[in-house]
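Objective 1b of the project was to move from sequence-level analysis to a structural picture of ligand recognition. The entry below was assembled by the postdoctoral researcher (A.K.) and checked by the PI before modelling. It contains the amino acid sequence of the target and the SMILES of the bound compound, zinc ion.
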Amino acid sequence: MIFQLFRRLARAARQRRGMAIDRAHACAALAALALLAGCSAYRPGGLDIDRSKQAVSQNSRVEFIVLHYTSASNDTSLKILTERNVSSHYLITDHPAPRVYQLVDENRRAWHAGVSAWYNSSNLNSASIGIEIVNPGRRGDGWAPYPPRQIQVLAILLKDIIARHQIKPFNVVGHSDIAPQRKTDPGPLFPWKALAEQGIGRWYDENLARRFLAEFAAQGLPDMVWVQKELRRVGYAAPETGMLDKATRNVLAAFQMHYRPRSYDGNPDAETLAILKALP
Ligand SMILES: [Zn+2]
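Corresponding predicted holo structure:
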């Protein structure tokens, strides 16, 4: 149905505007109507491309969603993300009624992740959608909270992107998760747990974490080889030094900001390790 409607609309548009029509623009204008059918009317150089068959073996190129704060005002964030050599697919403002800007098409690469790694992937710009959230970030020795309305808007956007691209829960990440040596955004006040309760992103079984905590209290903590291995198991690019070095502390701090944000000093305390062990 959508396919036929689209063909009809495209034909009507061609007739209205004549053959000199800019087909690429017609394609973009009609893309919203085309939905899953894609832009079936686009004919580069007049080529008649047959799009009547579609392969069953395919999926989205988008595997990750990376969340950021901008550490800048609405106007400055918009200016930087549109005019400098950094960008994101979406920008959510902190107006009382937050605005959502789309600055880069989801099929194209935005420049938001930089040097990054998650599981077996690196340089995540290629396979991710980046969402920048207007938030001042660190303020003195505190952090700026995210207004509930802004998070509501983000949750609507995330649910839609996750459904369309079939993003796995553990691949909804913060910039600090994928670049723990350089980044702290979206920061410890970002409501990962509240979002997980809405089915967005990954969380851990809290009963299981309590059981592991009791086990650690009785038996002592595992060593750093185990800690680093577990951090890698859940996606983080942790060193393999077997020592609590600076780089490992940074990874632990990123992990804590996400899963135990009350304290993120990078120390492998019993609660942090119990959560780490419980994380699927
Ligand atoms: Zn960032």
